[in-house]
Amino acid sequence: MAEEQTLIEFPCSFPIKVMGEMRAEFAQTIINVIRVHDTDFDAGKVEMRASSAGKYLSLTCTVYVTSKPQLDDIYRALTSHPMVKYVL
After folding, report:
1. Kind of pairing, strands 46-50 and 56-65?
2. How far is CA 69 from its chain centroid?
3. Among 17, 29, 40, 81, fewest CB within 10 Å belongs to which?
């Protein structure tokens, strides 16, 4: 099977921005989703920002990924989660 083309060199630290409604459990839920695919994910490296009106929360999660399939799996898990509005 041919390797997929990517401009990203693996392994690497890769920032993923995840946005959802402001809820007490949002950050921990996102951390748990990421840890399914990166068991060593450091929750201390999560940057949180609330929207100006306080309705939404943005998390920047820097994950250490070793392959494109792993990164794709993380994106799929996050984008399909019901609490998540956007993933960049």
Report:
1. antiparallel
2. 14
3. 40
pTM for the model: 0.90
Range of the domain at 31: 20-87
Which position has the token pair 């921990």? 28
Give the integer Cα–Cα distance in Å for 27 and 62.
13
Nearest C-alpha neighbor of 20 from the set 31, 5, 9, 11: 31
Look up residue 29 and give its two tokens. 């839920």
Residues 29-79: tens digit of each pLDDT: 999 999 999 999 999 989 999 999 999 999 999 999 999 999 999 999 999
Residue 7 is assigned to a structural domain of this protein: no
Label residue 34 exposed, middle or buried (CB < 10 Å: 0-12, 13-18, 19+).
Answer: buried
